[in-house]
Amino acid sequence: MTAVDDRPTTHPLVAFFEELEVPEGFKTELLRGEIVVMAGPDMVHNRIVQNVQDQIPSDRWERLQTQDVGILEEISEPQPDLVVLELDAGPESGRLMPTEVITLLVEVVSRTSVDRDYGLKRNIYAAGKIPAYLIIDPVMGQCVLLTEPAGSGEDADYAVQRITKFGDPVPLDLLGVELGTDRFRKLPDARPHSRP
C-alpha cells in the first residue's frame, strides 16, 4: 500500500497545516478546516491510553499513539489518542493513516476537549466511516462506544451508542476484546458536563 502523503492536497489550508511548526509539548490537529492547538495531556489521560493499548492484543492489532489520520474530504487531520487497525493493514510509511484501514479510534476527554471529542470529532469520524469510536471520559467516569457510522459531511453520525460507567467492562466486539475499565481514574476537580 502506498503512503497517504502521496495523495494530492486539494485545500491550501492542508498544505499550510502540514508545514506548521508547533512548539515542543503541544499537539495540533486540523478539524474541518480549523487548526486546534492543545497542551500536553494529564497523567490520568496517559495512563488510560496505555491501559487500553495493553488490553488490545498486539498479535492481531496495531495500536498506534500520536498517529495522524487523513480525512481529507473533511479537511481534517485529527490525531486520536489511539488508532487501532489489523496488523499489516496500514501503509508502510507516511504521516497519515487512511480511514479505510482503521477499525477503532480512541479519544480520552480532557478538561478542554469535551465538546470536540463528543461533538466535532464524533461527526468527523462518522463522516470518515470509522467503524468504531470510543470516547473515554475521565471527567464523568464513563466510556461511550459509537458504532455503525452513517451519513456524510456535517450530517454524519453513529447509529449505535453504548455508555458504560468506569468499573464495568466495555465490549469491543470488532476487536474481540472486552475492555476492562476498573483501573481508569477520574480527573480530580474536573467540572461535570452533560455530554453525550
TrEMBL record:
Keyword Hydrolase: yes
Keyword list, A-Z: Endonuclease, Hydrolase, Nuclease
Residue ranges occupied by any Putative restriction endonuclease domain in the UniProt entry: 17-177
Domain of life according to the entry: Bacteria
Gene Ontology molecular function, alphabetical: endonuclease activity
Pfam families: Uma2
PANTHER family referenced in this protein's UniProt entry, alphabetically: SLL1072 PROTEIN, SLR1083 PROTEIN
Designated name of the protein: Uma2 family endonuclease
Xref: InterPro entries: Nuclease_put_TT1808, Restrct_endonuc-II-like, Uma2
